[in-house]
Sequence to fold (429 residues):
Amino acid sequence: MNNGVIYLRAMKALLVSEYWKPKVLGGGEISAGLMAKSLAESGVDVSVLTSYFKGSARYEEAEGVKIYRRLSTGGGSGSIFSNLKRAILFSDSVERELPKLDKERDFDIIHALNITSLVGVSRAKDKLRKPIVAHVNSPTPFCPRGILLKGDEECGGDCDFSEFFSCLQKFGTVSKMRMPFYLRYNPFTSFLVYGNFKRKKEALKKFDCFMPISTFMKKMLLSYGISEDKIAVIPNIVETESFFDVKAEKHPVPGILYLGPYAEFKGPQILLWALKDIKSGYFCSLYGSGYFEEKLKNFVKDNGLAKVKINPEVPHSKVPDLYRQHDILVFPSLVSEAFGRVAIEAMAAGKPVVASSIGGVTDIVEDAKTGFLVKPGDIEGLRKALERLISDEKLRENMGREGRKSVEERYNADAITKKILKIYAEAVR
Fold:
């Protein structure tokens, strides 16, 4: 036992991530930073291989983590050009730079921290001769469009090119991005997107062990034939301290909150439809950005939803204040999300959550205890759940208290880091 502890303290782990602070695209990078910091605090020699952007340091140390910026990619996921650069540059740069850095540092284990890192790390494996770990935090290896959805129906995702091309033409989105018509009907673009999906799928076969962030992601790995003994569900570390500090406030009129992209598959329109027929007193605030924003504003205007306000996206640092000002969080996604960071943050703030009963969020919200789980797209079910919470202050308080307790027990950094260290040790042995 002591030998194991001594070895773990000397272990050298390399985390490969397309983006790193201060370049953060979303919850994945936030969780990755928290994980790296926690591993370093546990005694692991942690390094990060990530992309370089103009104005950033090629090398620096922060929070006990060594950061090497040697990879190439696009500026983000918000434009066609940037995503094209990502597809062309990133995996090749990982394959090229990873063995070089390993030769300098001689790591014990290589951890692909996001789905975009899978291909490059898998290609470099033969040169590394080290165990490689895959962090599975997105459905993109399981669906060319990245959302496991055809219209309003879930799908298996593992389709051939003709099925994908038909699906893209009909529904027009890839992940969170709506494709313009000249790309939607362009076979070259479709071949590029589908080829990227196939490469991710093939890359999974070369990894020694897997850390899906939810039982839903584990289920998808099993459906691909990955052996169960190679899989351990490791939820994201969520920075909950600022949310635990949210003090309970009594509001004369309960507030309902939506946080997320303004996109159809995220379901904000389902929330608005549910609110149409609620007679009880409430107010509702939506915060986000995306192509669907104008349609949501028009719906609010056309249906006289005076109690609803569509707001622009806010920095993550301001989110605790939003929970302080509201009483209920709604997570109405129509797709199987890999995780549900927003739900955990809301529960840490002592707020009940009404969520769709699919994907990773079902690991987080316990129906009728910390919130309500509703069939995705079920307007009437969502309306009834909201009416119960709006009309029953005691129920809101009880669910909020149970939610905070659940987060304290299940999503703290120490408990999750111990699980990661155990996987590292087993992989290295």
